[in-house]
Amino acid sequence: MRANVIIAVTALGALAVAGCSSITAASSGASKTCVATIGMEAPLTGPLGGLGQEQLHFTQLALAMDDKASKTKISLVQGDTQLNPAQATTVTQQFTSNPKIVAVVGPTGSQEVEAIGPLMARAGMAFISGSATATALTTGKYPTFFRVVPNDSVQGPQDARYVVKNLHPKALMIVDDQEAYSTGLVAAMLPIFTSAGIKVDHESVSQKTTDFSSLVAKVTPATSVVVLPWQIAANAQQFGRNLAHEHKNAVIFGTDGLFYPSTFTISGSYVSSFGTDITAIPADAAIVAAAKAKYGSYVGTFGPPVYAATHVIDQAIASVCKAGQTPSRSNMLAAIKKTNEPTTILGQPIAFDSHGNSVHRKFFLYKINSAGRYQPIPG
Fold first, then answer.
1. What is the 3-state secondary structure (H, E, C) of 171-212?
2. How many other CB atoms sit within 10 Å of the CB of residue 167?
3. What's the start-to-end Cα distance of the chain, in Å?
4. I need a surface site. Which of 28, 243, 269, 275 has the fewest CB within 10 A?
5. What is the per-residue burial (b if ≥16 Cβ within 10 Å, else e) of 233-264?
6. pLDDT digit of tens for each residue in the chain (379 aa)?
7. Dist CA 47 CA 205 (whole Å)
8. Which of 24, 21, 9, 106 is nearest to 67 (CA)?
9. Are 156 and 189 in contact (CB under 8 A)?
């Protein structure tokens, strides 16, 4: 599905970093404010509009909270991708042709990163995702790409091992949704399932599918687990309803794309996530309070990593300004590569390896209770 790209400019502040609020001009002795413009790509409308709005709100919150601590002023340009690679390409073309934009937060999906990575590389523009996890994104082919979440080389094996050791299936079904994120996870999981001697039925379905009765019909009495590495939580919810309608008792195991507590609520299901619930981190209390006061309760774990990604960009702008330079794509890229944050909203440090991967990587696991609430599983 294609829709008109929605782009809006919002003037917001940034930077809780000392020394950036005012830079002295060497030639005149005058003082000037450290200013810059960044872009943000997310599915602001469409099937995942709620998730995209959560990411936008946490981007805005990071900028606003940082601005409160300094006089730095950063403008935010929003780009609505609808999780569509073609639309993400259109947004990115607009961003890269705008000389004011020095870095980008996002995009949300791995398939979008694959679509825009070459464009960003040609423009020399750094972009940081808070949710794109496909392993192949950080093999060196997208040299300006970074992410603050772990990749699927961590998630896939971790989830698969949990299924093997704790759910003990003799037979399972795993269904990809034909996108890079999903097929990459399936590739990481299958060897672990097969080496454990589990009979695996690998199916494939389009993200546009909304009736899963024919797929559910393939779930045999021996199939005790159905693994759904999907991105559309509403699809997983419908799949679960189809299972219940057919009186089939297979347990759904979803990956981080299904971590959507307002939508995917099938009791007894499992969901992994690249982030923990920040309401459980005492150091994040002020951020949680600010988020609730400004935007109401937020959906899940997709917002905080985007806050972290935005803050990385903020700090890079700060370091450039503190050095007496005007933020540009080249000096921003260099500054982001040097990121070394010992404490973050995510409860763990942020630093990047030579390919843009976060060097501190962990996935978390949750089980959905009878009330539809996500309960963390220790470990």
1. EEEEEECCCHHHHHHHHHHHHHHHHCCCEEEEEECCCCCCCC
2. 14
3. 40
4. 28
5. bebbbbbbebbeeeeeebbbbbbbbbbbbebb
6. 333 343 333 333 333 333 333 333 333 334 567 899 999 999 999 988 989 999 999 999 999 888 777 677 999 999 999 999 999 999 999 999 999 999 999 999 999 999 999 999 999 999 999 999 999 999 999 999 999 998 888 899 999 999 999 999 999 999 999 999 999 999 999 999 999 999 999 999 999 999 999 999 999 999 999 999 999 999 999 999 999 999 999 999 999 999 988 899 999 999 998 877 888 788 999 898 988 888 876 657 889 999 999 999 999 998 899 899 999 999 999 999 999 999 899 888 999 999 999 997 778 899 999 999 999 898 6
7. 17
8. 21
9. yes
Token pair recorded at residue 230: 């999907």
Instruction: Report the residue count for the chain.
Output: 379
- Tokens 């993400």 correspond to 88
Only one residue has tokens 């917002």, namely: 303
Task: Look up residue 51 and give its two tokens.
Answer: 């998730």
